[in-house]
Design goal:
about 350 residues, alpha/beta, seven-stranded mixed beta sheet, six-stranded mixed beta sheet, about 35% helix, globular, RibonucZ/Hydroxyglut_hydro, Sec-metab_biosynth-thioest, Zn-dependent hydrolase
Length: about 350
């Protein structure tokens, strides 16, 4: 959903964007790369940080883009024209989702360098690259069916997406270095503190540099859209929305003038305002869901037109279903709704 209060944020670069295969200088030693995605959300932001490791000068890459020939070609252009003749020394991945993890294996192999990522997301990426987790296949179809998505054509398409994750993340680096909440990573002349976030991914790592006043937020804080927070089939009774809200509340302790570098959208200032907007957005959705379930018992699928007031393709529908279940679960696990499994095998929620 587009942010109706976006005017409360400021964009220091205006509408300037890096083109394909380009890297735009944001600060000394910090460059912005933008790669295409084959979805309605059609891009991901990636970051280059000037670095020194073991006496070698070079660059750290943060996030990778999906595995595709086009993304590889754009990276090769960046390597040829925007690394100042220096190598890539390491690759940091904020979380396991395919647009962030996809080319990690190719990049680390190409440059003979190490992947840095949280342990939870590394292990889940290993599992998902051989059998899609929460994004397609029989288990996902059965899970969505149990929450009211019963259209046979849609379920057949979900079953057919068993290779969704492996198609964009075919390989995972065989070794990694672990990132944990509160760790300090020295990158070039600056210390970056690891900030763990939950709810969007199991152990998402954002990076904050106090000296630069910059946070690489990954997907935890986006300026124009709300981060997807979903329940998926591998953890069917999860409460990711509470985890997400708790996580962004902790980010409000960062300075108000922090420059936020998001995975999608443009770099912006207004972190505290954006956190307030996201909190308000989810509280409004929770109130709407509670009202609907007060009127009659509801399942997740019938809430989609209320929660997402635009046409959804199948890719968006799977994310929307996960979000609807997440809001129902927050109210259920918070004691405001009860859940029943009816004779048709569908979970319904009522006061």
């Amino acid at each position: 959903m587009a942010n109706p209060r976006e005017s409360e944020l400021t964009y220091p670069l205006g509408d300037t964007l890096p083109g394909p295969g380009e890297a735009l200088d944001l600060l000394p030693g910090l460059r912005w790369v933008r790669m295409g995605l084959p979805f309605a959300l059609d891009h991901i932001n990636l970051w280059l940080l000037r670095d020194v490791q073991d006496g070698r000068e070079g660059w750290t890459i943060v996030d990778c883009g999906i595995h595709s020939d086009a993304t590889k070609a754009n990276w090769e252009r960046v390597f040829a024209e925007r690394l100042d003749g220096l190598p890539v020394l390491r690759v940091i991945v904020t979380h396991f989702h395919p647009d962030h993890m996809g080319l990690a294996h190719w990049l680390t192999e190409r440059w003979q360098c190490r992947l840095w990522i949280s342990a939870t997301d590394y292990q889940l990426a290993r599992v998902a690259s051989s059998s899609t987790v929460g994004m397609g296949g029989e288990a996902a179809a059965a899970f969505f069916g149990s929450h009211g998505l019963t259209d046979p054509a849609a379920l057949d398409k979900i079953r057919g997406r068993a290779s969704y994750y492996p198609s964009m993340v075919p390989s995972i680096p065989p070794a990694f270095r672990r990132l944990m909440d509160g760790m300090t990573v020295r990158i070039g002349d600056h210390d970056w503190r690891c900030l763990v976030g939950h709810g969007h991914a199991p152990e998402h790592i954002s990076l904050f540099s106090e000296t630069l006043g910059v946070m690489i937020s990954g997907d935890m804080v986006l300026p124009r859209i709300s981060t997807n927070v979903s329940v998926v089939d591998v953890e069917p009774e999860a409460d990711p929305l509470q985890l997400y809200l708790d996580s962004i509340a902790r980010l409000s302790t960062l300075p108000a003038d922090t420059l936020v570098l998001p995975a999608h959208g443009k770099p912006f200032r207004g972190l505290h305002a954006r956190i307030d907007q996201l909190q308000q957005h989810h509280q409004e959705r929770l109130a709407e869901v509670l009202e609907a379930c007060t009127a009659k018992p509801c399942h997740a699928a019938e809430l989609l037109p209320m929660m997402f007031r635009r046409p959804l393709d199948l890719h968006q529908t799977t994310f929307a279903m996960g979000e609807a279940v997440a809001h129902l679960h927050r109210l259920w696990l918070g004691g405001l709704l009860r859940r029943t499994l009816d004779a048709d095998g569908i979970h319904r929620f009522s006061v």
